């Protein structure tokens, strides 16, 4: 019985761990990483919508932080599908990748796709999020590799 | 039932009472928040802008959800991005991985002549990055509740 309980606890811990966010350390410097990730996402058919320079915004308000940028992007068909079928899910649009500096190193971070999948309302949406996950996680790994 | 068995069952009850509820409280389905507004979309957005100021947030930008991905944007799907710089600074200092929640945003949609405000429960951040943002998330949750209450009253 106690083994059963232990197994249950382990399962719960694993479920929590599975929801972690993908973070990858880049082997490129910050500008090259920013440039790489945008090129790669564009190559996969995503439109780059905007870059939010949080470090600059906070800096103007007197709060100094290392470079911290959020790249917003997406595909028109995905937006249309979500607007038509699951308007509440628009809170996750546009999609984003965060690029930030910490202790002189550059990191790329994806969205929490597994948790988003848990919120999906139907199979089509699960498949869409799965596709995003495949595209974006592979993109951040690719952008983290040396440019040349 | 033996003493050992009773003791084991007591542990299971304790586990179910104190370990499962926090996990269940963070169930993903409860993270997508939707509130119906009694007002039209423009009035709802105007109310949000006013309420953001009342709650120490600054509006950064208002846009259609699909701006930048299509030329035929749907004006019934809008996003308002906003920020409290002190809170954002504290969040990033404590947890670099918080970027997926930034900047704060509310989405306003008009579907079948009904207007809704959608947002991601700030508790989602706790679920994703851990408990060290508890106080901050609670503070932002409270601010979001105040904003929604002011906007829809």
Largest sheet: spatial strand order of chain A: 1-5-4-3-2
Q: Tell me the total number of β-strands of chain B.
A: 5
Q: Would you list the SSEs of chain B in sequence order as H and E?
A: HHEHEEHEEHH
Radius of gyration of chain A: 18 Å
Q: Total number of helical segments of chain A?
A: 6
What value does the Rg of chain B take, in angstroms?
A: 20 Å
* Global morphology of chain A: globular
Q: What would you call the structural class of chain A?
A: alpha+beta
Mean pLDDT of chain A: 88
Largest sheet of chain B: 5 strands, antiparallel
Give the low-pLDDT segments of chain B: 17-26
Helical fraction of chain A: 40-55%
Query: Most extensive interface: pair and counts?
Result: A-B, 51 and 47 residues
What profile does the largest beta sheet of chain A have?
5 strands, antiparallel
Derived from helix and strand composition plus strand pairing, the structural class of chain B reads alpha+beta
The oligomeric state of the chains shown is heterodimer
Number of helical stretches of at least 4 residues of chain B: 6
Shape of chain B: globular
Task: State the end-to-end CA separation of chain A.
Answer: 57 Å
Helix content of chain B: 40-55%
Task: Describe this structure in a few short sentences.
Chain A is of the alpha+beta class and 148 residues long. Helix content of chain A is 52%, strand content 21%.
Structure description:
The complex is a heterodimer of chains A (148) and B (153). With 148 residues, chain A is of the alpha+beta class. In chain A, 52% of the residues lie in helices and 21% in strands. Chain A contains six helices and five strands; from the N terminus they run H-E-H-E-H-E-H-E-E-H-H. Chain A has helices spanning 2-18, 30-43, 54-60, 76-85, 113-119, 123-144, and strands spanning 23-26, 47-53, 68-74, 95-102, 105-109. In chain A, a hairpin with a 2-residue loop joins strand 4 (95-102) and strand 5 (105-109). Chain A is globular. The model of chain A is unreliable at 10-18 (pLDDT under 50). Chain B has 153 residues and is α+β, with helices and mostly antiparallel strands. Chain B contains six helices and five strands. In chain B, helix 3 crosses helix 6. The interface between A and B is large, with 51 and 47 residues.
